[in-house]
Design brief:
The complex is a heterodimer of chains A (about 475) and B (about 280).
Chain A (H helix, E strand, L loop, with lengths): L26 E2 L1 E3 L2 E3 L5 E6 L6 E7 L2 H20 L2 H17 L1 H12 L3 H22 L3 H4 L5 E3 L2 E5 L5 H14 L3 E5 L6 H13 L6 E3 L4 H8 L5 E5 L2 H10 L6 E5 L5 E4 L5 H13 L11 E5 H15 L20 H16 L3 E4 L14 E4 L6 H4 L6 E7 L2 H9 L3 E2 L1 E5 L3 H10 L4 E4 L14 E2 L2 E2 L12 E3 L1
Parallel strand pairs in A: 1-5, 7-8, 7-10, 8-9, 10-11, 12-13, 12-18, 13-16, 15-16, 18-19
Antiparallel strand pairs in A: 2-3, 4-5, 6-22, 11-21, 14-15, 17-20
Helix pairs in contact in A: 1-8, 2-4, 2-7, 3-4, 4-6, 10-11
Chain B lengths: L12 E3 L2 E3 L6 E5 L5 E6 L3 H20 L2 H30 L3 H19 L5 H5 L1 E3 L5 E9 L2 E5 L7 H12 L3 E5 L5 H12 L8 E4 L3 H9 L6 E4 L6 H8 L4 E3 L7 H7 L1 E9 L3
Helix pairs in contact in B: 1-7, 2-3, 2-6, 3-5, 5-9
């Protein structure tokens, strides 16, 4: 009798997270001055689930008059908040952190419904990190003297904050927590396609008893963001595309308005032949397919040392074929829905350009849902340094693979980018890892890991990836005026 | 109709996460401001001290290994739990110590706020104290603050609650475990704090509270070879404490009541410098 090996089955029974954890209102107003208020010159839109295209709720979008109202509310609240004892300011932020933890399940489900990211990520990354960020900056409120080396400081006043759709609640936390800890009041504009968790945060703000007007949340499209950065604010913080970041920097030219920008990236993930290859392959997967590649620091340029390139591509492809793409609410899903039709079109356009320019495309074959926006995990081989897929940010589940021979060449290739947000270095040789890390022109360098975030660790870019840092004591600097 | 009589509390030590009597079976009476008997408290023995240090040592590794965020959340939980009992503890000060209620409330409020303040230090003192050393050679050299280990706290007699929290919180924030001798004159509310810690996710053994006579406990605690640091908040400059400390080079600090909070953490941490080559 010949023993035959049982064929491995990789089918998983569906394990959907219950939607019951989240009860959405049919309609949401703007959150201005501590109260919900209908838009005066704005509109109302339906926000949809990108995985199914179903309408989730109606959301008020701010018009220019609404933006001005929100800024006025923040302005009115500013003196009182700045005069609040630092520890007392911190206590509100601690409370908000606790409330986020209490409503974690609901927030995770809504984040996934509105944005398309796998529930595993919203549950394990987005929401816990948002709470952690508030918790950590809560503790800075009464310790600014230590963070600022004893320099005299004052809040900037009113800050206008515009956040993206890839980590909606987390980016709101990154913006609001340090701003408030330093004594500023804020107007936050969530992204057009993902306003819901920011609106739930507004509910949390109300539950926390935060004084009215300290946080104002006004959903809207790009025009509301443009109006906000040009309004009567003292500081602007923006996370989003480099193109819009440049517009904002131009718009603020000649003013005293403070500015921090966290923009795009085309981060290099560099793998040396002496790395633990299987561990590295997991890191590469995590680096580019986390959140469908909708990550500004995604490891979208994979640089492989020639001697192991073939083996790594083989392992990487085998691992990619095991990725589960589909229902974001399913706890087994690795790759969820693309955030919007617009983003799907952008990814498709760049991928087509990659093929046209002669790179070899490999996309995994998997059943994609019939409704919603989807893109299969994809890698490109035979990529040239000048190809659009090497140069431009795709912001999707697409990785371009290139090779190098020496550490020097790897650094040159990695730094050959207008961006400089992040990088990964994979090697078991510590001396080499630190040498390469110090030569990279990138704001974050992960060694033998990727996509790690913590409220205590500064995050932000070099070059056209923006300026200013979020996280750690450095994250306080943009929100104080050193006097 | 018979009047319902109150069930009086038996005051116990907080040791290794459990509430225990002194192994010696001894107790001392505690009186109020007028000299009237209020309750008996355990009179801790040398063996109780050794048990407490053993429990603190056993808990230290695990406590230090927890993330700074987690330690911060536990101290914050401690603050939440203390807030919820602060009215009761303030009224106890009025009854036992003849304190004015507003002052007693202010003491509790300050104690809660101090716990919140130190909850915020857990993930920050490292950034303020440690850092990269720009050494003149191809090395990555960095210094990080680590907990010194087991800390003996000699709490002041007054204020019994705030005075204890003031020294215990920085030790815990930095990742140390604590054996504290609470106020000799007013031990009751300080022992109540053990109950607060006990419901605050503070792991067993991380905080140990003993009460008793200082002259009996000083030598076994401050002379214990497994104690790494002593915080003497009694207000006395005790040569005995210093000499006991010298035996195993314990760090002794005597922080001023209103002294800097980071300085308290610094006194209870060790700076470790690590070197790693950069380049071949």
């Amino acid at each position: 009798m010949t023993a035959t090996r049982t064929k491995l089955h990789w089918d998983y029974a569906p394990a959907p997270e219950s939607r019951d954890a989240a009860t959405l209102k049919p309609s949401y107003d703007l959150f201005i001055g501590g109260a919900w208020s209908a838009p005066t010159d704005g509109t109302r839109i339906k926000t949809i689930n990108p995985a199914t295209e179903e309408e989730l709720a109606e959301v008020a979008f701010a018009g220019p008059g609404d933006v001005a109202r929100a800024v006025e509310a923040a302005r009115a609240a500013a003196p009182g908040w700045a005069a609040t004892a630092p520890l007392e300011r911190g206590k509100y932020l601690f409370r908000i952190a606790r409330l986020i933890q209490e409503r974690a399940r609901e927030l995770a489900v809504v984040e996934t419904l509105d944005g398309g990211k796998p529930i595993r990520e919203s549950r394990d990354v987005d929401i816990p990190l948002a709470a952690a960020h508030f918790f950590s900056y809560a503790g800075w409120a009464d310790k600014l003297d230590y963070a600022l080396a004893g320099r005299a400081h004052a809040p900037r006043g009113v800050v206008g904050q515009v956040v993206p759709w890839n980590f909606p609640l987390l980016m709101a936390a990154w913006k609001l927590a340090p701003a408030l800890a330093c004594g500023n009041t804020a107007v936050l504009k969530p992204a057009e396609t993902t306003p819901l968790t920011a609106l739930l945060l507004a509910e949390i703000v109300q539950e926390s008893g935060l004084p009215d007007g300290v946080i104002n949340i006004i959903p809207g499209d790009g025009s509301a963001g443009a109006a906000l950065v040009r309004s009567n604010v003292d500081k602007v913080a923006f996370t989003g595309s480099t193109a819009v970041g440049k517009e904002i920097q131009r718009a603020l030219a000649g003013t005293d308005v403070g500015l921090t920008l966290e923009l795009g990236g085309k981060s290099a993930n560099i793998l040396f032949e002496d790395a633990a290859l299987d561990q590295a392959v997991e890191g590469i997967i995590e680096g580019i397919f986390f959140n469908q590649g909708h990550v500004c620091c995604a490891g979208s340029r994979l640089l492989l040392q020639e001697s192991v390139a073939e083996e790594v591509v083989r392992k990487l492809w085998a691992r990619m074929e095991r990725l589960r793409v589909g229902d974001p609410l399913d706890k087994n899903t690795d790759v969820g829905a693309i955030n919007s039709a617009e983003q799907l079109a952008r990814i498709s356009e760049l991928v087509e350009a990659g093929e046209r320019e002669g790179a070899t495309r490999r996309s995994i074959t998997c059943a994609l849902p019939e409704t919603g926006y989807w893109f299969p995990p994809t890698l490109f081989l035979d990529v040239a340094p000048a190809n659009r897929i090497t140069v431009e940010e795709i912001f999707g589940p697409v990785v371009s693979v290139m090779t190098f021979r020496t550490p020097k060449e790897a650094v040159e290739r990695a730094n050959n980018s207008a961006y400089g947000l992040a990088a990964g270095v994979w090697t078991d040789n510590g001396a080499k890892a630190f040498e390469v890390a110090s030569a990279l022109r990138a704001g974050v360098v992960w060694q033998n890991t990727y996509n790690k975030f913590d409220p205590t660790a500064a995050f932000g870019g070099y070059k056209e990836s923006g300026f200013g840092r979020e996280g750690g004591p450095a994250g306080l600097l943009p929100y104080v005026r050193l006097t | 109709m018979t009047r319902r009589s109150l069930v009086a509390k038996t005051y116990k030590l907080y040791l290794g996460g459990a509430f225990v009597r002194s192994e010696s079976g001894r107790s001392d009476p505690t009186t109020d401001h007028a000299g009237a008997h209020v309750a008996n408290v355990p009179r801790s023995s040398r063996k109780d001290v050794r048990d407490a240090v053993k429990a603190a040592r056993a808990a230290q590794g695990g406590w230090a290994k927890r993330t700074a965020y987690n330690r911060g959340q536990i101290l914050y939980r401690f603050a939440e739990a203390l807030e919820s009992r602060s009215e009761e503890l303030a009224r106890a000060a009025v009854a036992q110590q003849d304190a004015a209620l507003p002052a007693a409330r202010a003491e509790l409020g300050a104690a809660v706020d101090l716990l919140v303040h130190y909850a915020g230090w857990t993930d920050k003192f490292q950034a303020v104290m440690g850092g990269i050393n720009p050494v003149a050679a191809p090395y990555l050299s960095f210094s990080t603050a680590e907990p010194t280990g087991v800390v003996a706290v000699l709490a002041p007699d007054e204020p019994d609650v705030l005075g204890l929290i003031r020294e215990v919180a920085p030790a815990l924030a930095a990742g140390n475990t604590v054996v504290a001798i609470v106020s000799r004159r007013w031990p009751l509310r300080a022992l109540d704090l053990g109950e607060v810690a006990g419901v605050s996710d503070v792991p067993g053994g991380v905080l140990n509270l003993l009460c008793g006579r200082l002259d009996e406990l000083l030598t076994p605690l401050c002379g214990h070879r497994d104690v790494n640091a002593i915080v003497d908040a009694t207000g006395e400059r005790s040569k005995v404490v210093d000499e006991l400390a010298a035996e195993t080079v314990k760090r002794v600090s005597r922080p001023a009541p209103d002294g800097d909070t980071l300085a308290r953490i610094e006194a209870l941490t060790e700076l470790k410098t690590a070197w790693h080559p950069v380049g071949s």
